[in-house]
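pasting for ref
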Amino acid sequence: MATTDSQARDFAKQALRGQVDKGGAPLVAHALRMAQQFRSAHIRVVALLHDVLEDSTATLEGTTLTGPDGTVLELTSIQ
């Protein structure tokens, strides 16, 4: 089963709960804005989760994220 936007959004909200950006806005708001810019469900899921690995203690160890066509999404952090 594919990871949905809703599942990715819930995961991001939980992982980033209580964190704020430099302007004081909830950090997850940035991910939500990014996701709205894309039509591709694959890209929306990545957009929703892109800050989770960088800005939280959450890991994807033991978690499988699959795209709409059943492929596993690999999230890469660019430093």
